[in-house]
Design goal:
Arc Repressor Mutant, subunit A; Rossmann fold
């Protein structure tokens, strides 16, 4: 994506008007700033009209400015530092209501995930998980929460689950050294991407295991090591990693495996309910209601 956008600019440079050349030069030098500007703001920055910016995008072959903006954002997807994230988030929200802005952005990420994810890859991933001898789940740093969540529910459904959330190479390879063609590995990583996630998935692929990537786009470095790619949109330019869409995808993955193993899982959960009731794991709401009524 990076080379693709810059090569489009270079290929069209001779045909650009003076104003369009100013836009092109600014993007080449400051794409990290331009990626989060509106067409109007970018135009003001370089001294051209908003319509000139829009025409510039279409001349590059994009359907509109939002597509050009998306291409610029892909260029910096794994390059923003935490400090830069704070600045970008503050600029995005401005004087708007924070709660409204953030929740609407998360809604948009789920919508985009639903539009972009491969149903075929999702179905193949479910089949692979259900038929695997062992299931390995890798997620570190902010994605460790996703790995633990998926591992918790898969641990109730299957008896062959290993969750790796440690960034130590030694620890990770000790966990993976028995992985083979009968196993499946689920690697989870979002910008900034984990080197260990890529290395672990590559090792699993070399050993013949089926590898599933849960990541944010087809330009993610996890893609090259994966048999199935499950795209879930995150937001690398936010102060915190937005994992709403990835969690929704993980929920879907859990539900799909339960449906695939419905009879077996039903029997398992019947036994678990007996254990939970006997051990008093969950508070019974009726007793709390009665207590409040007596007060």
């Amino acid at each position: 994506m990076v080379e693709h956008l810059l090569s489009r600019i270079e290929m069209n440079m001779d045909s650009f008007s003076k104003g369009q050349k100013r836009i092109a030069e600014y993007i080449e030098e400051h794409y990290d700033s331009a990626a989060f500007m509106t067409a109007s703001k970018l135009g003001k920055k370089v001294g051209v009209s908003e319509s000139t910016v829009v025409r510039f995008a279409t001349q590059l072959g994009y359907s509109g400015y939002p597509k050009l903006q998306k291409a610029m954002q892909e260029m910096i997807r794994d390059k923003l530092t935490s400090v830069q994230r704070i600045d970008v988030t503050a600029t995005r929200i401005g004087d708007n209501d924070v709660l409204d802005a953030i929740m609407n952005q998360d809604i948009d990420k789920i919508r985009r995930t639903l539009e972009e994810i491969s149903r075929d890859d999702f179905e193949r991933a479910v089949k692979s998980i259900v038929n695997a001898r062992r299931i390995y789940i890798f997620g570190v740093r902010s994605t460790a929460s996703l790995a633990e969540f998926l591992g918790y529910y898969f641990g109730l459904i299957f008896d062959n689950v290993r969750v790796i959330t440690n960034t130590s190479k030694t620890h990770t390879y000790e966990q993976l050294f028995r992985i083979d063609k009968n196993d499946v590995m689920i690697g989870i990583s979002f910008p900034r991407y984990s080197t260990m996630a890529v290395d672990s998935m590559t090792l699993a692929r070399e050993r013949g295991a089926n590898v599933i990537a849960i990541t944010d786009s087809m330009v993610s470095p996890l893609v090259s090591a994966a048999d199935e790619v499950l795209i879930a949109r995150s937001d690398m330019a936010s102060i915190v990693d937005s994992l709403v869409a990835p969690f929704s995808l993980v929920n879907a993955l859990i539900v799909a495996t339960v449906i695939e193993k419905k009879d077996e899982v039903t029997d398992t959960f019947k036994e678990l309910e007996l254990v939970w009731n006997h051990q008093g794991v969950y508070e019974k709401s009726s007793s709390r209601i009665e207590y409040r009524h007596n007060e």
